[in-house]
Amino acid sequence: MYAGAEQRAIEDTQTTTATVSVAVLAAAASGFIVFAATQQIIAGLGAAVAGGMIVGTLASAEVGIYAVLAASFFDGLFKGMSPGWHSLLAKDVFLALTIARWLWDGMMGYHKFRSLRSLVALPAFLFIVYCGAQMFNTETASLRAALAGFRTWVLWIPLFFVAYDSLRRPTQVRRFILVVALLTLITSAYGIVQFRIGFGHLEKLGPGFGFYVRFGGGEHVRATSTLVNPGVFGAAAVLSALICLGGIGFIQRPQWLRSFLAIVAAVSIIGMASSGSRAPLLALLVAGLAFIVLVRKPQLVILIAVVGLIMMGLAGEFAPDVFAQRYTAERLGGKEIIGRVSMPFIKALTIVTRTPLGTGVASGVGVGRGAGLVAEPVRVRQTAAGMIENEYGRALRELGIPGGLLFVFLLYRVLRGALTSYSSLIFARDRWMAGGLIGVLISVLAELMVGSVLYLAPSGPFFYLAGGLCERLAIMEGLSPSAAQQEAGLEAAMRQTSAPLKPQPH
After folding, report:
1. Which candidate, 180, 163, 296, places its Cα nearest to that of 241?
2. Is 363 helix (H, G, I), strand (E, B) or coil?
3. Residue 51 confidence (pLDDT)
4. Where residue 305 falls among pLDDT bands split at 50, 70, 90?
5. Contacts of 443 (CB under 8 A, 6+ apart)
6. With the CA atoms of 299, 301, 304 and 308 taken in that order, what torsion angle do they form, in degrees rounded to the nearest 10?
7. What is the torsional sign of CA 433, 65, 18, 475?
8. Contacts of 22 (CB under 8 A, 6+ apart)
9. Quick one: CA torsion of 210, 213, 215, 217, rounded to 10 degrees?
10. Cα separations in angstroms, 411 against 36, 112, 202, 327
């Protein structure tokens, strides 16, 4: 057994080294070619990064996951520097390549599509089909808008299955944590700086940064970092902090690495404060409480309270105007929160009484900057237009009662699968990691009450990646009875198929 584990570790190291080497060569070649053609350093660097990520994704679905996250974290920067279809659909391209590699791995027998036997598979399939049918709702006036709306509902669902099948070993989980930590450290630190200096420096980099004017002005700047708006930045910082907290327990050594993850979590919380986002703050409180309960460390309450006070003090020092304008007792009061959640949902209930089967996905949500890139204006019917800032309410309004129930059922299955996996874990480090991942799920589910968090990146990718990875933890331990039986049965079948025939006794 140990020899086999050692051999797998050697093969994993060799594969990683080969993938990195080829990706670096591709990046260098792409960057040199584009720089030679354009004589622009930024264009050359962008081409180098894109080339390396594409080659890495084609070589490994795991690298594809990291490419999707990187494209998500720097989405606002790409769109600002070079507006167009190439930057608008960059995430989609990396996602498509990642899915293609996942499919290839499955057909080659590397993972045998075990994720398709999970509790999430059936509701995910039904939900995608149903959303596809809603593209042709009678209220639909533009198939372009319907395609964009369909994308908002289903775009990131495949990442659940990719994560489940591709992140199979603890070393991969460790890499996942470190990649998230690095991305959030860069973006959160820059967000804090951006809050202090404003958006003026960005306007020199590209024409698309004029979009940020609405988030700054006078002394009250809401940082966007490298993402598309302050809310997306705040949500990304909170979800990353939860993954880093899980990583502190999962990574046992070296100690400096655990300290690094704690620092990154703290910086990300300060970054969230600089964005002035209220929903991520409240979601963090709910998810943080769930994390403490799941890891079964009551003493963490005191530690987190002390650290929280320190972080709030630092956040107030770095972003005093945000606290004065956004984080006030009035804005975070119970009445304000209840009204913010209930009013959009009540509006959706009113609409669904008139259209029980929904108004269709062509509401204009998801069109965004793409509307300015098409020759003809995108038309949306008045009865279907408008944004419901409560994703549960938007599901009822666009997808009708059947679609709304199916949407909730899908989310329930993701959360239930994660909790079932957590309940089967016995090793403290795995339970700690599962607590962080479940915290991500709970945080997103809470934020869905005030916006389209599952459509936006990296919140949407984080949700499905966390769900798939959390379910996989139990299989890594070999403690899930059903999963263990499936694995054993498949391996036995493979051995029987490949074993030579033996004469049977008469």
Report:
1. 180
2. coil
3. 79
4. low
5. 235, 238, 239, 242, 280, 283, 284, 286, 287
6. -150
7. positive
8. 55, 56, 59
9. 150
10. 48, 24, 38, 29
